[in-house]
């Protein structure tokens, strides 16, 4: 059950004889633009999420200490859910708006393609 010398020599030639080359998508300028817009959208979403965290946590924590209904019904988990829901929603909405704005800007025909 050994490989004969004739069939053993076919594999190395076939492995390197391919002339079909596919260019890397990283080399394409539009992929770099997409990568940059994604990075910028993530950065913008993080900034908006930080603001939303402060804006939602301060009233929530004050309400739990001052309002009797909130003091009786909102435990630590409820407070965290309120704050996290606002923060996460703001992140995704802001990032999505930035990506759509970048897509609109890059979708215009510039005559170079």
Automatic annotation (TrEMBL):
Region listing for Disordered, in residue ranges: 1-46
Listed Basic and acidic residues bias regions: 27-42
Pfam families with a match to the protein in the record: ENOD93
Protein name as it appears in the record: Early nodulin-93-like
Source organism: Kalanchoe fedtschenkoi
């Amino acid at each position: 059950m050994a490989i004969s010398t004739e069939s053993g020599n076919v594999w190395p030639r076939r492995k390197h004889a391919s002339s079909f080359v596919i260019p890397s998508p990283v080399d394409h300028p539009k992929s770099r633009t997409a990568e940059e817009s994604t990075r910028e959208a993530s950065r913008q979403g993080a900034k908006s999420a930080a603001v939303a965290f402060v804006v939602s946590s301060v009233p929530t924590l004050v309400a739990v200490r001052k309002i009797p209904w909130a003091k009786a019904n909102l435990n630590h988990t409820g407070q965290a859910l309120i704050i996290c829901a606002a923060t996460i929603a703001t992140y995704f909405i802001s990032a999505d708006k930035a990506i759509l704005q970048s897509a609109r800007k890059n979708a215009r025909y510039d005559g170079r393609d």
